[in-house]
Amino acid sequence: xxxxxxTNTLTTLIVRVLSALCTIAISAMIARAFxxxxxxxxxxxxxxxxxxxxxxxxxxxxxxxxYTGKKxxxxxxxxxxxxxxxxxxxxxxxxxxxxxxxxxxxxxPKVLDWRITFMAFAAIIPVICFNxxxxxxxxxxxxxxxxxxxxxxxxLLAAMILVVSYVFRLDIFAAIAAYALSFFVADIFFAVAxxxxxxxxxxxxxxxxxxDIISYGIKIYPSHLxxxxxxxxxxxxxxxxxxxxxVGFYSVASALAEGLGIFAKSAGTVLIARVVCETDQxxxxxxTPAVNRAVLAMMFLAAIILSLIAYPxxxxxxxxxxxxxVAPFIVMLFGTxxxxxxxxxxxxxxxxxxxxxxxxxxxxxFWGGVVLNIFFILCWGLIGAAWAINAVxxxxxxxxxxxxKKISGNDIFEITIIKKSDIKAYWNYxxxxxxxxxx
Length: 439
Description:
The chain contains 17 helices and no strands.
């Protein structure tokens, strides 16, 4: 049975919190086992995998939600074709990325050695498949199952890293292998779950479906690519301009700051499915601003609290060796609300079929971010990198707000400033939660 937006968002939030705790546990284990340098190398490898995977997806994960939700094609057919597409795009990505890695082999050892790079290549197809299979469940609005299986991947990876780092005391190469394996196992569970709800799998290539998801996805592809790159390319800039240890500090600050965005990501995951399926435009006009106001209010409050406990938080979790991450973390905290606002508004705009707008905003953010990162990092080091990413997030949120105003008719104050009615609604939601858990 399909659940309400609030229920789906709440369950997604709980899972995202648990997943974020797993991510923090993983980074802490790696940080303590391998130090700042090893932590930086692991982060760069994961970012490398993410860049190649999202480059190969062509926005087809969002297209999967759209066509699954619209039911133009049977879910049985979508499952099989998404698996076919995963292997095809993964193979294409390897064919393109491997020669590039060879071409730049003189610079690569500065941030990643060859063993790590080749192990990272092995994770690309499982990560692509994970994205395309998991988004089928979102399109079906099977959010609880999506959440459970996403959490399974996080728990599995945390367990593997624990074994790799502390039981067998292996190196970063083994940690990247564990990363790849966790996604491979999760892919199997996602395929089985999707097949259960769909009533099976039809193992037949449907050229029409493949053309449709590429046609839809290509419109939002620049958004996916540039949004990811705008917040991740700085890892490589820090690595090349500074060193892998600096990446280790930066990755800790970035992971904790972005962890604040779990509520926005949870709401955004459910929101896009709701926008695609909603036929009442008035409800849609009122709904997204209410969600955005709630997210922004929570993020500002959380940013203030975390900035006050930043030093003990980082040194207790990661050890005193990572004290250099405290200052960039505090700076990043106050850009996180803007990132969260972007997450909500971009999902609404994409759900309305206006992906090209999001793509243009993200493209400008990426190229502007590259320039800002290089200049700020050369001038102010890690603090400069933190200010650069904040500038990118604020631009993305402001540009999305202007675009959303034109599309929806809501002014910027409507989507940002909290109302008295919101406070009453929050209290009612809190009371409902407390009743459920019998507090």
